[in-house]
Every structure is written in C-alpha cells, then in structure tokens.
Design a protein that fits this description.
The protein contains 2 helices and no strands. It is an all-alpha fold. The chain has one domain.
Amino acid sequence: MFGKSAIFYVVASTIIAVVAEALGAGMGTVLLASLMVPPAILAGVAFMRYKGWV
C-alpha cells in the first residue's frame, strides 16, 4: 500500500507544482501547494473508504 501512495504523492506533487508554476504562482506557493494537497487527497480517499462511499 505504501508504494501506491508514494507513487501517487510524487506524481500529484509534480503535476500540482507544474500547474501552479504555469499559472504564475510564486515559489513558496508552489512548494506549499505541492506538499499539502496530495496528503489531503489521500486522507479524503481514506475517509471515503472508511465510510463505505467508495
């Protein structure tokens, strides 16, 4: 399970960083977004699985 999460984290972080940079965000915002959004998505998916929604 950790392998899938790690791959998702790396891919999602890269995509978020590239999109934020393309939209003109500053480096601090890019780093913050790429480090904070993937864990939030993983936590959301885990919560949805816990509740039985997925």
